[in-house]
């Protein structure tokens, strides 16, 4: 793809699997350019840069933050480092897109938002699902009252991970476990549809090291409920059901990056197709660009307050299941 002259220049720190998927999608985003990557392993940075057509590599995150060419940093390091690295980047005048969950505690999430306000730079938690076309369209129909008042949400995110392969999922020090890694997705869906619950009931099956292997959650609202589940030791169909008084919307599997959905209403089923550009990270990158060009420090679609609200919900569940980092 031929890039425009007025590209927004990105840096990436934390060069794992998610960062690779994001970098690949930046190549598909016409006004984005990846100009620098950083890893504490110089060889890893060099290999990553070569694969994704990036000119500069660093073996220090601080050096990337000091690079005047970088306008926005995508932070894809383990969860436990998100807060400090995001704040460091913002102190250096960089805009930040930080992988979810943005922090392992509400207090850290609050510090990150305050840094965005203090240094007058854009900050967003990378809930890419909020920006993919199928979810955007489904939300629009729901807001128009097509399925009536939403009364029930069911959403799972579950897969089988191999503990023997190591990595952050089973590492308590890195913020591992089902809730913070993938449980935030169904909680996000319930939140954008129904808001902050009146009551939360949650139970987990835990690993001997204290992380949650699977967590089930019931969110009670004044006139609605959400039944949610996350697991790293079993699988599910990963469809999401949104039931209203006049109809039902089912987001295709995997719902968090759905390429379409079904609308069931009046005994008829209508399907809608909304393919993503690339994996789907392109859409959140485009939102970052629009906000930066409009001198906004937050997105109207996934705002600072949205992130803080979700962090508070996650922290309540964290306390209920006795999860400590």
UniProtKB/TrEMBL annotation:
Keywords of the record: Oxidoreductase
All copies of domain Gfo/Idh/MocA-like oxidoreductase N-terminal, residue ranges: 8-125
Pfam families noted in UniProt: GFO_IDH_MocA, GFO_IDH_MocA_C3
Stored InterPro entries: Gfo/Idh/MocA-like_OxRdtase_N, Gfo/Idh/MocA_domain, GFO_IDH_MocA-like_dom, NAD(P)-bd_dom_sf
The keyword Oxidoreductase appears for this protein: yes
Presence of keyword Lyase: no
Stated name of the protein: Predicted dehydrogenase
Source species of the chain: Flavobacterium chilense
